[in-house]
Amino acid sequence: MKNLFFGLIITLTLASCSDNDAKLDAQAKKATSDTLNYTTIQWLDTLINFGTVKQGEKVTVKFRCLNTGKKPLMLTYVRPGCGCTVAEYTKEAILPGKEGYVMANFDSKKFCDVVNKTIMAASNTTNDKDRNLKFTGTITNCESTDKVVMPKLQPNK
């Protein structure tokens, strides 16, 4: 009986944690499948140069979009190109004439010299449905990752 009770509590806890994500996924699926509610988008930023930072610094860049149509705009899919970048974005509907955003948080600790990164963003639009948002910059003060290994000499026996 105790096992059943604890199993029920764990199940309810996990369900409540994923409830928000499930609602967002359902809203995004509805937005992309309902072509009568498509709108238009204008990306105000598609390429950002964050300049020069020292290796290990974290960088945040923000891409803005404008709903130029007559229906609510939904950013339905936003994914960075690699694990060094975390993307945040406007999850609620962007009303006509209003702006939304995609924000990229980039960790430069494993990079050196010039970097070019991409975030893919999809929306419920008739134009520019899938957009690659790009950011670039230069990483300086890099630690060398080169290692020289000298073999240990074994005495002759």
Protein model, in words:
The protein has a four-stranded antiparallel β-sheet, with no helix packed on it. A four-stranded mixed β-sheet has the order 2-8-7-4. The chain is of the alpha+beta class and 157 residues long. Strand 7 (113-123) and strand 8 (130-140) form a beta hairpin. Mean pLDDT is 83; it is low at 1-18. The protein starts with a helix and ends in a 17-residue tail after the last strand. It contains one helix and eight strands; from the N terminus they run H-E-E-E-E-E-E-E-E. It is elongated and about 80 Å long. It is 20% helix and 40% strand.
CATH class: Mainly Beta
Structural class determined from secondary elements? alpha+beta
Judging by the overall fold, what is the CATH architecture? Sandwich
Counting DSSP E segments of at least 2 residues, the number of strands comes to 8
Q: Which stretches are low in confidence, meaning pLDDT under 50 for 5 or more residues running?
A: 1-18
- What's the order of the H and E elements? HEEEEEEEE
Q: Approximately how much beta-strand content do the residues carry?
A: 35-45%
Briefly note the CATH topology name.
Answer: Immunoglobulin-like
Mean pLDDT: 83
Spatial arrangement of strands, main beta sheet: 1-3-6-5
Q: Could you say which overall geometry the principal axes of the C-alpha atoms support? A: elongated
Helix fraction by DSSP (H/I, runs of at least 4): 10-25%
Number of helices: 1
In angstroms, what is the radius of gyration?
Answer: 23 Å
Largest sheet: 4 strands, antiparallel
The CATH fourth-level homologous superfamily: Immunoglobulins
How many structural domains can be distinguished in the coordinates? Answer: 1
